[in-house]
Specification:
Helix content is about 35%, strand content about 15%. The protein is α/β, with parallel strands linked by helices. The chain folds into two domains: about 230 residues, Type I PLP-dependent aspartate aminotransferase-like (Major domain) (Aspartate Aminotransferase, domain 2, 3-Layer(aba) Sandwich); about 100 residues, Aspartate Aminotransferase, domain 1, CATH 3.90.1150. A hairpin with an 8-residue loop joins β8 and β9. The protein binds pyridoxal-5'-phosphate.
């Protein structure tokens, strides 16, 4: 039976595109039904109904003053190819349902892994799953019993240890937010050491030359990993090439729609075997944590083809430059106290006055700044995820609030 819901309706698709381009500012007032509607509105009416709610109410991550979180705007080539993905609905679990997409993922991983000294890996929905996959491989291949990381490591590391039945030993971070290497135990023979390249709160990069000191070294480069593709900043991650595994969130500084990430391995074949299951209805082994999963490599491939390495690096360098500009302005303002240098585009600062950071945040434009707590102190946090930010505009808001 021919069902128009499953065939392209150019007028409907155009309506959806026009809604996106012409999105209203501010959420509409139309409430959603409390219960599952008995009968449908039809697709075009749904576009009109949802436009003010979904599009109007959303935060714009590419807005000139958006500088608050590790969430970048996404390029239009990724919007377009994500729509292709939604239409095709390929499932990478089955080679016959995704004859091209599996090869595309392998190709993208082949392009990116050497930047980190890794020889392969696979895509994940982000670094939470990438960190879990890495520690799973470490447990299977090296028999690790415990995970050591700084207490500034992302919560997904403790979560992964918990899920895998591994002990978790957090080591205090130093005053710059880096793992304090003096506090590491001498014997790491049954441990996975997790180092962070770009901590969530402060953007600190642990001493990556510690790679190789433990039975397995995993580097959580969820945020700062893409600095590897910048000629100017790649050296900040030197040492990463000696890790056993690396996690990168492509939906952060690779500018991808969520959920998109990578787990990369130095020696991929045994690592993939260690985290694979097969048999029954599967024509190919199921590698990693996910069962059915989509072709998130397609928008990543499209973005990398559109920009090339230099185009990616230019955007990351630009974002780093904006963070540095903001750091210098904050540093020379008597009303602001900085936490530390600009290591990976994350700046922490607080007003020198008695005003608390959360109270101060309320004076700043929504979406421009966030708050994080380190050792009991609240800091304002700006994150250079948005290469389109206008620091003059952001600074005008900060100066006004500091006055
Ligand atoms: C350092 C670090 N690791 C891991 C994660 C988790 O990554 P994801 O949100 O991609 O699952 C984050 C998220 O912000 C992070 O900052």
């Amino acid at each position: 039976m021919k069902d128009p819901s499953f065939t392209a309706d150019p007028a409907g698709l155009r309506l959806a595109l026009e809604a996106l381009l012409d999105a209203p500012d501010g959420a509409g007032s139309q409430a959603l039904p409390d219960t599952l509607p008995e009968s449908g509105l039809g697709e075009k009416a749904v576009i009109e109904r949802l436009k003010p709610i979904v599009l109007g109410g959303a935060r714009r991550l590419g807005a000139p003053d958006a500088f608050a979180h590790m969430d970048p705007p996404t390029p239009w080539i990724a919007w377009a190819t994500t729509q292709w993905n939604a239409a095709l609905n390929q499932n990478l679990l089955h080679p016959d349902v995704a004859p091209i997409a599996r090869g595309i993922e392998a190709r993208v991983v082949d392009w990116l892994a050497p930047g980190f000294g890794m020889d392969g890996g696979h895509m994940t929905p982000g670094s939470t799953v990438a960190n879990l996959t890495a520690l799973w491989a470490a447990r299977e291949l090296r028999g690790v019993r415990a995970v050591i990381a700084s207490d500034a490591a992302h919560l997904s590391v403790a979560k992964a240890a918990h899920l895998l039945g591994l002990a978790f030993h957090p080591i205090p971070a130093d005053t710059c937010g880096r793992l304090n290497r003096d506090r590491l135990p001498d014997d790491l023979g049954n441990c996975a050491l997790v180092l962070t390249a770009g901590t969530t709160s402060a953007g600190a990069i642990d001493d990556l030359s510690l790679s190789g000191r433990a039975a397995w070294t995993h580097i959580d480069a969820a945020w700062a990993g893409p600095l590897r593709f910048s000629t100017r900043h790649a050296a900040r991650l030197d040492g990463i090439q000696n890790a056993d595994s690396v996690a990168v969130s492509a939906h952060k500084w690779l500018f991808q729609p969520k959920e998109s990430g990578l787990i990369l391995f130095r020696d991929t074949e045994p690592a993939h075997q260690a985290v694979s299951f097969g048999g029954a209805y599967l024509a190919a082994p199921n590698v990693g944590l996910l069962g059915s999963h989509g072709a998130v490599a397609v928008p990543l491939l499209a973005t990398l083809l559109a920009w090339g390495r230099t185009g990616l690096a230019e955007r990351i360098d630009r974002a780093m430059g904006l963070a540095e500009d903001l750091r210098q302005r904050l540093d020379s303002h008597p009303g602001a106290v900085l936490f530390g240098p600009n290591v990976s585009g994350v700046l922490l600062w607080r007003p020198a006055s008695e005003v608390s950071a959360p109270d101060f945040l309320a004076r700043l434009p929504a979406g421009s700044t966030s708050v994080t707590r380190i050792d009991g102190v609240d800091w304002l946090r700006n994150v250079a995820a948005n290469p389109c930010a206008d620091i003059d505009l952001l600074w005008a808001g900060i100066e006004r609030a500091l006055a």
